[in-house]
Structure formats: structure tokens, C-alpha cells
Specification:
Helix 2 packs across helix 4 and helix 2 crosses helix 5. The model has no long low-confidence stretch (mean pLDDT about 90). The protein has about 80 residues and is mainly alpha-helical. The chain has a single domain, classed as SAP domain (Transcription Termination Factor Rho, Rna-binding Domain, Chain A, Domain 1, Orthogonal Bundle). The longest helix has 21 residues. It is globular, with a radius of gyration of 13 Å. It has five helices and no strands. One of its GO terms (molecular function) is DNA binding. This is DUF2132 domain-containing protein. InterPro entries: DNA-binding_VF530-like, SAP_dom_sf.
Length: about 80
């Protein structure tokens, strides 16, 4: 990936942990569970358990990243 591609990637430099912390602070576990229907938001949710899940599950990570991008778009209007 070259420098230009980094600049065009809105997630460049944003960690998965940052994504989860910000989404949790804004929505809470219950709303995140309703939005995504994944166990890490439903069964004893924590940032640590969610990090583990999203790092191992590519489809879910893609989904949480899209949710985060929508969150950013809607909160910076």
C-alpha cells in the first residue's frame, strides 16, 4: 500500500480497539447487539472479548468497520 492509498483509507491509523471503544461509548452494548447480532455484544460483553472475536472473524470485522464509518459520517455532519 502506498502513501496515497493510506490517505484514501478513512480507517488508516485507527485501531480496532479505538473503533470498539467509540462505538460502545456512543451506542452501548445492547444497541450494538441489536445492530450486529454477534455474541460478543450479547454474552458478557467487554472490549477485550470483542477484540478477540473481531480479530478472528473477518466478516464481522468488515461489518464493524462499516458501522464505524457510518458512525463517523453521521457524527461529523
Amino acid at each position: 500500500m502506498n502513501h496515497t492509498e493510506h490517505n484514501n483509507n478513512p480507517l488508516h491509523g485507527i485501531t480496532l480497539e479505538t473503533i470498539l471503544i467509540q462505538l460502545h461509548a456512543h451506542y452501548g452494548w445492547e444497541t450494538l447487539d441489536e445492530m450486529m447480532k454477534v455474541n460478543c455484544f450479547h454474552e458478557n460483553p467487554s472490549i477485550k472479548s470483542c477484540l478477540k472475536f473481531f480479530r478472528k472473524t473477518p466478516w464481522a470485522r468488515e461489518k464493524i468497520e462499516k458501522l464505524y464509518l457510518n458512525f463517523l459520517k453521521n457524527t461529523t455532519k
